[in-house]
User: Fold these one by one.
Assistant:
Number 1:
Amino acid sequence: MAAPPASVTLLMPREAWILSRFMAACLAEGVDTTLCFEQPRQGTWQLVHYVNGEYGDSTGIDVRTGWQAAVPALQARTSAVVPTSEFSVQLCEHLAVALGVMHNPLDAVPAYRDKYAMRQRFQAVDIPQPEILARFTSLAQVDRWEWASARFPLVVKPQDLTSSLYVQRVDTVEQARGLYRRIFKHTQSFGGVPFSGAGLLETWVDGPEYSAECVVQDGGLAALFVTTKFVSRFPACDEIGHLSGGPVDAGHQAAIEAVARRIVQAWGLEGAVLHVEYKWVQGRVVVMEAACRIGGDFISELVHRQHGVDLERELVRIRLRRPVTVADGRPAQADGAHGVRFLFGDSLPRDVPAPVTLLRQVTYRRASHPAPGFGIHQRIGYQLLHSPCAESLRAYLSTDCKPAASTAAAFEPPSS
């Protein structure tokens, strides 16, 4: 009797575009799919099964006593568990262990989303990063801290929130206190996902921002693609666009690859697709944070169009223990560059300057009622773009960005 086809459980997809890419990846790999949707306010999981790309059946699981209640329903038909969002990366590893399928070491899992634990892990393997000056859980702790000795600017960030919410450069104690007040109140997501409610204070590091999309298999770095970030003006520095393609200095590429290998070491990873956010400061990488998942903001589509590498499919193959398709880590680039530009209330759709080409434009909120700012919740849509000239696309994406020049102090690694 032939063995049953492999089946992949896609854990807690939250966005339609990323779900569609994972579903296409599973079809390309010839595997059946189970979509696992969490409904935390109801205390249930909904399992939706697809066979040969078509709807099969669905099952509701009561998980009020814990996620372990879903294991029997998944045991017979799960060959791999794949995280599809930042809220599923930690649970994915625990569920994979329970199901006896490919997983990464559990001891590093708390550091996937907890920025405090992440900094400690990275420090142990000498990864350059900002220094944590304090961790606060109340305004009383904030008020007692020795602000007189603080060297502004500094960075306030939550310990474990999402989408860079409340991550901001501050220049005064009053600015910091206002952010911490909001962080301490934000103890769960709108969907019921719990947060620690703790806030961190870090040293400020100035420099152009990038991310690295990393394919890891068998504990080694199989491929790495550099994405350029475009951010709004100080103090928020919200992400307003991304670019894949264009020249990357050989020294820059080698430096981020070396740091990515240390992150793999710090987390003891067997296999994953990583999204590493960093700044390039005076010829060296400084890591802002890393995520054991595919980056959001359509970055995987940019990489696919520019480099011909489907990160969702690579992650499915990794979790199924199939060899990744990236052989040498240096696939040929398409001409020029691809990018995404987000649209905001004060940045409505406009004519795209030649030679930039508009591949897709989507607006999904009413532009007649724009909210101020450039945060993720102020986005009203996006443009997917291509240009045969990377610099022309870079210039278009740079509109509304902070100035490149800096008066901030140069990065100094924390003393050991």
Number 2:
Amino acid sequence: MPTIVELLGEDYSVFGQSFHEFKQDEVRHRVFYDRTYDTEYPDVKRYDGMQGGANIYYKYEYDGNLGAIQYQYDNELHEIFPMVDSYY
């Protein structure tokens, strides 16, 4: 959010640090949620009342670059969060 506000030419300080302020070697903590379907979990209703679509989130937390998240993704190192409803 701060980077978007910065690019609009507005004061972004209330939103935190802009992407442009991170140093190349600075370690950042990131979280990635992957919405998916898993047969081990119950179906959830979609926005239109129908069953189906995604029913869980895989949560990946990592420090580092693309290689760090790729390693976790490839080795299924994630937390699972069941959905209660789904837009998709």
Number 3:
Amino acid sequence: MPQPTPKSGRLQRRVVQQPWVANTQQTFDLPRGYDLNAVQVLVSGTIQVTVAMTAVRANAPAQLIQNIDVFADGNKSYNQSNGILSAIGNAERSFANSLVAPTNLVAVHNVSCMYRLDRVNADGPRPKDAALHTTLPFMSLLQCRLTTGLATDVFDATAGTVTNVVLTNSIMLDETMEFNEADRLEGRFIKRISFQDLAVTAANTNQQFILPVGQYLRGVKIFATDSAAANPDTGSNVLINQVTVRAGVDRRIDLPFLVLRNQNANAYSVPIGTVPAGFAFADCCPDGRLNQLFDLRGVSQAFLELDVAAPVATGRIRMGIEEFMWQEGIAPAG
């Protein structure tokens, strides 16, 4: 009896390993040739505290990377991703994270944080149908740009001293090797992530954010914080009262923030305590089925509208907007 021949294979490899440099941008060329499932960035190493810090910030050490951008040919953006959202907001993978934080005490502390940028629709029935083609003629250059923070961003640095920061950036690719030429060239429904950020200074019952139109919207990941300036990354579940996603009179999501968080827990099969404080995903297809996407083609405007309470301290709202768009296929030769 003939044995089945695999149609595809999985490739996982580290392609970059460079010293982490504080408060800068580093751009790395990524290899192409296969379908890209995910880009994973790992920052790991040691931070030495020589005078005790006041405290460790919430969600530490995700502050070491502020933003991650993945783009092709210099101008085609696929990911404009915030560091903290990439580290703690992976709802489609049941909020899996990999954070090893220091303490505020005098010592040499091991720290690490993994930031995962999924290109596939991880919770859908056919995840790899959204993998990104990276070969010619789809693109000739693929790059990843990291914007770093400071080692002291991990701490409430009202008091204390940090020295001898020894950290490394590693970039890993998760890829699919298609052995069939037709599969290598078929059309794909690929993901695009963009980012918006707002400092909240007062209550606003209708805080509007303009959403991109012309493609298909899956949803908006929201991370709300309200905390002292020295520890600004503490999530708040009470800064936002209501979440609405709409285009004209078509309201796809219109829920209280706390109800949306509980809905996230049910949709992604986790206890509510696993959903990070201050986080909610306004998800138009919470079971991952892309036939439920919000079709914004031909729409002139779409909005995320938030009913925002007055902040107690320093308020901030970070948003990751997740769209899908068609990557045209190419007929095989012959």
